[in-house]
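Milestone M4 deliverable, item 7.
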Amino acid sequence: MLANCKGFTLIEATVSLAMITMIIAATAPLFTTVLQERQTVKQQLFAYEVIQNTLEEYRTTNEKPIAESPISKDGTDYLLTVRQDTESVIEICIKWKGKNGRNYEECGTGSHI
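Output delivered:
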């Protein structure tokens, strides 16, 4: 009765399971790297937003922002620095360490109207 049963043998199932495990093990580090890079892009977008908001505030109030101020969001510490190039032009830079472990700095310049 069992002589005509068709199906997978234990060895075939074990080999298939081992192959699937190796594929998952090989792609797991890539997946974590992609997630870290995605979080770093979100941090970079936040940095651009801070620079733009600071420049807009300078343009509307005509008051120079605080020279150096720390900002913290979602467990990331940013350092905002403001430097006056000329009487009406300022440079705003923001530095932080990304979720991927690299240091980043973004800058923008602007003048009041």
